[in-house]
Amino acid sequence: MKTNDQNDNKISRREFLKRGILGTLSLMGIALLGNTFFSSCEKDDDENDLAEAEAEAERKKKEEEQKKGQLF
Q: Which residues are CB-neighbours of 11 under 8 A, at least 6 positions away?
């Protein structure tokens, strides 16, 4: 009974090291991978692509208007 009472409030060295190493490895993994987890969530690239598409559409519209103006 004494050993059970002593073990209830304490963790073994093995368990302590295991928890410490797993915590350290998880933090190192997150630090190494950095922002790659959330790179697909970025909107900057999508907004730039949209702006480029709108600019191209406007350019084509102006070219068509110029062609129509030259025909008349």
A: 19
Residue 4: pLDDT over 90: no
Please tell me whether residue 22 adopts helix, strand or coil conformation. helix
Distance CA 8, CA 2 (A): 10
Q: Indicate the number of domains in the chain.
A: 1
Q: What is the pLDDT at residue 46?
A: 56
Encoded amino acid at 20, one letter: G
Matching residue, tokens 């070219």: 63
Q: Which residue has the higher pLDDT, 7 or 20?
A: 20
| 54-67 as b/e: b if 16+ CB within 10 A | eeeeeeeeeeeeee
Q: What's the whole-number average pLDDT of the chain?
A: 78
Length of the chain: 72
